[in-house]
User: Fold these one by one.
Assistant:
Number 1:
Amino acid sequence: MTMSTRASQAWVIARIEMRRAFFSKRALWVYLLALFPSVIFIGHAVDMKFQQRRMASGPKVSAAMIDSVSRGETDAAVLKRLGEPADDNEWNRRKYKETHAPNGQRRYEELPDLERHRHLAYSDGKRRAYLHFVNGMLESKNVRDLGNFEEDRSIFAAVFQYFYLRLAIFFGCLGIFMNLFRGEMLDKTLHFWFLFPTRREVLLLGKYMAGLTASCVIFTGGALLSYAAMLWPHGGVEMQAYWQSVGWSHVMWYGVAAVLGCVGYGSVFVAAGLLLRNPIIPAAVLLAWESINGFLPDVLQKLSVLHYLQSLCPVPAPLDSDVPPLLKMLLNPAAPSSKAGAILGLMGVTVLVLWAASKAVRRLEINYGTE
């Protein structure tokens, strides 16, 4: 049998399996997992667009005027100097005095005077200032950017590396690739494939191609949709400069990282489905290993799929400022591998794992009674 014939057989098997991978009921949660971040980014983008249009249609003041406002000023003085605000809300709040009863129980006594609150909002076109007055005096000032592109890029980098690479692609590949053989054994339908006049290695290749196509389309599409939603509310000179410099490169490398994540994790889980009767335990062990990756020595960090996937990401994930200092000391990320090294390393591991899976599928015996 020639290689072209085997390739044609693998493609036929892949086309049949792709229908199941894309449209089976088992795949519904995979779509939800892949599209969940995009819903959040789209909601954030819509809110930003609404705020930008609202600010564009309202009165504007200069950035210097907003910066000149300081605590202790009266609302009348601010209104006189800055003019009409974009928002002006007033309300009264009752004041209470805490007292203690003879038995020690705390009580709150209502005072006759009302506390007057006022909220003014100003915009300079790029920022929005929220001024909160209590009894006519400025109590707090909060200035926010209407859209911080660098901050949004960092947020997406964190979502991609902490959610997509560590959770979504991992569990998505677990669900898709584990069912390629293990699911058929549970459904008692695998023997139909073994009656197909082709080598079992070709069957493995066809099923793997189907799972890989489905996972790449679903998770790469979900990640790029989230990225597009993140970019949507931004525009102007900043975005033009971004696309002319590193924009398309970032899109490409995020896509490559998602695809190679599916390639690597997919090969591991299809092999686990063939070699182990209960592959959930090794999947949990692998998840734990990937989760503690940042705490391991450099040599051990390089023995994980996650290390090479993170090396491909164009923007490093920010570390939360709320992380305890002791945890920051323990975190010791290894130096990222070169992009070429990361790709070759992942492909090498994939080939090795698929070779082991081909040996396992050749020796596989069907005994539905033990499943």
Note: Residues 326-330 have pLDDT under 50 and may be disordered.
Number 2:
Amino acid sequence: DPPVDEKTTNLVVNYSLAELRNLLGLGPCSSDGEFDKADCVTTHPAPLTMSDPLPDASGIQGQPLPELADSFRQTSTKLGFNVELKYPRETLLGKIARAAFLKQPINNQLAGPHSYFASINKFCDKILDTIWKHAGSRVVILSSFNADVCAVLRLKQTHLPVLFITRGGVPSNTEPPDMFHVDLRHHNLGVACSWAHVMDLAGVVTMGTLFGANTNEMAVPPEDSMQFSLDLAAKQLACFVYGLGVSEQKFLEKATQFGLTGLIIDHVDQYMQEHNMAK
């Protein structure tokens, strides 16, 4: 928050007791102004369900997304967060490859290990500082597609689990590979698991396709999926999967068979409804 000066208008003294309690997510006080145990129950908006109306783009739902600190402050500590850190995919090797391709001089002006990791370090510090200050007692998981970001997050702290997100070699139509963004740690799931194991990460997040969720995208033999499963178990890595097909009832049996940790899906309420109907 900005420093307080003579132009500051949102001073605490300008708020009524009811307004302050509302800002803190607390229910209204009793009619006599006294607090009791029931008054101090924290209230938060109920989660959205499939039966809720579509968001109003011109209303509050159409406003810019809240910052991470605001998201923590405005939600219950019972709500866990997966904080996925977005960072440019270009690796240090990619920067050198780009310079060579453009026939630029390879000298000390080019990004090196020091400047490359200094930038990542500063970025991770900012995120972690926000979490320490505002997350409270809630469960927080850290994750990133950038393998170096995952490594830095793990080296900087051991309290929060870190997951390495990778397509595990499954090709993407929207992100064609090029020599500037090739990272061998994404070459296949086996390599990704080895990196996660070496860096003592908590696990990986990958495509359900690798475990038979969507055979149209990429056919993976069941024996290969089982080998992935055995490798994950041997390295004691958690594995969450996402993508087409993971929310289907028939994949739940495969996920159980392969010992997957969890599924990443949209519309949890709809999934639970379909799952309960199938029982």
Note: DSSP finds nine helices and six strands in the chain.
Number 3:
Amino acid sequence: MLEHDVRTRRSAEDFPRTEHLAWKIAEIAADPVAVPPETEAMVINRIIDNAAVSAASVIRRPVTVARAQALAHKTHRGAGVFGVDGTVSAEWAAWANGVAVRELDFHDTFLAAEYSHPGDNIPALVAVAQQLGVSGADLIRGIATAYEVQVDLVKGICLHRHKIDHVAHLGPSVAAGLGTMLRLDPETIYAAIGQALHLTTATRQSRKGLISSWKAYAPAWAGKVAIEAVDRAMRGEGSPAPIWEGEDGVIAWMLAGPEHTYRVPLPGPGEPKRAILDTYTKEHSAEYQSQAPIDLARRMRERIGDLDQIATIVLHTSNHTHVVIGTGSNDPQKFDPDASRETLDHSVMYIFAVALQDGTWHHERSYAPERAHRPDTIELWRKISTVEDPEWTRRYHSDDPAEKAFGAKAVVTLKSGETIVDELAVADAHPLGARPFERDQYVGKFADLADGVVEAEEQQRFLNAVQHVSATKSGGLGALNIRVDPRVLDKAPTVPSGIFR
């Protein structure tokens, strides 16, 4: 890997295009380096993972709305919408499928200087691949690039400190991945990256206070915008440049300012793209930094015994966990039983309380209004707080995979004064966890979440198709779309008509 210094440049400076971060990313995307077998295997795992969580979310309201919007844009030569027959224009398929993937906060993650869910790249790439008849091998190449670019940007450039949402790294990564998949030249990819970044910078209010369904739409929007950016760039249109480093660019006015230098790691020429191997999926449908606390709560409940005897619980954790999903956020909504599901999945206090009581976590039952309103849950929930521990923050940012941690230490004080202490650095499903996810676990997650949603024969057809995707010839990627039992779709909420019909 090569590290690149990225900082603001005055318009009068001699700053050749080949030094722009967007150009360097474009060169990586255009590099025809082979995909390592382990990268290919993980790409397949994540396509399965996305299908699993899409099956679980298919009749939720935001997914139903996005699907209705997409189905208003049918075309004979298009891409599939998860769960239904027919094809729509690729950008709308990416929109609908992106919402389905993101809705339950149940797919993969990468955390470093910034947050990310790199699986958000996949719906846009699959949609374009289906519409243009791309081969399975090229789809895998594109996804490998998209993961590489997003992970590298997440390692190098912090957005949340400046209240910019993390999808600002997703737009460029989708554009780069599409560039690889479509075998575009660096100049075209460069223009698409600039447009995609310019149009996907937004504030983090979407993840603050009372969190709405837009949290699921935001990454789908980035994917849709990136597809449109690539289309314009392929037709010869340019973009704002240099988009990161310009005098009025992203770094100068949205991030750390003109005096700051970021260091962004990127593969060198001919270096394989392996970043997907640094990412990790979720066993539980909740914000990633609550994955280890859920497993910790499940482990501690027997030691604690009578939960009514708890006086307080303090979770010692990283700054990120404390301020995003903990009491350091100062969001009273995180203690409100009437809060939205999106808000509750960003409340580690609620999550720890329910996991402690139930000994499990479920993507629907754990968030049900009747579950959140249980008096004993509310009482326990309000006894829980978080504090930042500098050591957990240091480990969160560590470059050593064996030391990097996203967990917490729980200090449970009983009414008797006795304390029970335990800690967990990474979730059980993490590559270094107690039960790491491999192919069997991804397939198992798909089977569990698709049960009662997708018929068994269709499940098996999809699994066979995806596990042989690298051999899929041009025009065959429609096999990655899954048909949901129509009786399930009939249970989706009725939504009002909008502009698109």
Note: The first strand starts at residue 2 and ends at 7.
